[in-house]
Amino acid sequence: MHVFDLATIALYLIAITWFGAHFRKSQRNLKDYFLGGRNAPWWAIALSIVSAETSTLTVIGTPALSFSGNFQFLQLVLGYLLARIVISALFLPQYFRGEMFTAYELMRRRFGERIRRLTAATFLVLRALAEGVRVFAISIIVAIVLGTGQLVSILVIVCLTLFYTFEGGMTAVIWTDAVQMLLYVVGAVLSFWVILHQIPGGWEHVAAVATEAHKFQVFDFRFAWTPEFFSRSYSFWAGIIGGCFLTTASHGTEQLMVQRLLAAKTEGQSRAALFSSWIVIFFQFALFLFIGVLLFVHYSDAGMAAPQSTDSIYPLFIWNSLPPGVAGLVIAAILAAGMSNLSAALNALASTTVMDFYKPLVTRRTPRRDPGQLGDAHFLGVARWATVAWGVVLFLVGLVARHVGSVLEAGLTIASILYGSLLGVFLLGLLTKRVRETSAMIAMIAGLLLMIYVRVATHIAFTWYVVIGTAATFSTGYVISLFLKEPDHEPAAGAR
């Protein structure tokens, strides 16, 4: 444990916390707190999307995938690009009709208040569980660096991130995301070159060993209607189809991502942020997969056994083998990835809680003769304390998440179980006219129950979860609407 490394990490944690909290003075109302006043440039939003999409799960989980396997994970990233085309054409025009704060306001306009609450509640459960796994992933790094227990490690990261998110809102989230994303990419590039120069024979030796071990294999085009085919997580078909559905759900229906898209000044800037983020995403995943291959060659040459948990192989190598100063910078970069995602989740959870539950409830119950009681200051205060409440929840979920396996696949699996029903009901709203609220709610619940069964009782890979859940939800809702006679939904005032 080098003093210079610890000083680098401590300096980073203090600086990023101060930087994020500095944005408090610009928070005057809910638009500022949840959408950053819609003043952020598209490139900053793009970097924020990347930070939310990758997180610490990517930084420590992706090298573990190529260390144990190969480059087939990149097939999933190709599906991410296809999803962005779908979102750009189908979702963004709807989100920029009027002023929205959350994705679930779209469901209220199309179906009604009940489906809005159901979809919003689904997001709250989904993000709390998935983010808890990510919080635990961050604690792996802190525990290695500081030698603390996982409980203390989780507490430190949650408290620091909570502080600047509480103070600075979405503006702090976007700009700290941009800074932290650049930091962990620089850290990854730096660690790549350092690891490479520690391997005798350099890149030629790495390429020879990795090629012989089939580490650079990307595509798996095998196709068959068999249980074995659907149990493979990474194939071309699972990547293109499953990756497309997964990202359409996450970026098109989940508040964590939609909130960023809504923070853009215009629909065109939102679209630019969405597509440019994919270029960075592809580069990031490829970079971390290459790092995993370098670690595979290094361990093979040295005859060393891999650690019991391959998720810890990259941070362990950084801390034990990189030169003083470099190790501290790279560890700080990994912490940056986790903190940026955690801050975004806290703000998204708070915005959904306030805008989809609290504000509609108290607005209906407060007498019209006392409108001052529900001014901007009131809701801004509620938003900040909702952020604190969710910080406590994520801390508790992070403690439970210590018992999961691979953190990357655990996070994706949790999300995929719920994404199918969310995407299915959004597509019912966007692609059909006859389906009404009750049919949509029944379909969403049916899709969710089916996916719980698929997870518990089958060996189907998580990459197919969103496809199955979406198809089941969409078809169930449409069929039920043929038999269930429901009155037309009256659009809310101001909706177009």
Q: Which structural class should the secondary elements be placed in?
A: mainly alpha
CATH class of the domain at 3-96 and 132-365 and 372-384: Mainly Alpha
Number of strands: 0
What is the name of the CATH architecture of the domain at 3-96 and 132-365 and 372-384? Up-down Bundle
If you average the pLDDT, what whole number results?
A: 82
Subunit arrangement of the protein? single chain
Count of helices? 18
Distance between the termini: 60 Å
**Major β-sheet, in short?**
none
Q: What would CATH call the homologous superfamily of the domain at 3-96 and 132-365 and 372-384?
A: Sodium/glucose cotransporter
Keywords:
496 residues, mainly alpha, Sodium/glucose cotransporter, 18 helices, 76% helix, 0% strand, disordered C terminus
Please explain how this structure is put together.
This protein is mainly alpha-helical. It has a domain at 3-96 and 132-365 and 372-384: Up-down Bundle (Sodium/glucose cotransporter), CATH 1.20.1730.10. The chain has 18 helices and no strands. Helix 1 packs parallel to helix 14, helix 4 (74-95) runs antiparallel to helix 12 and helix 16 runs parallel beside helix 18 (465-483). The longest helix has 48 residues, at 150-197. The N and C termini lie far apart (60 Å).
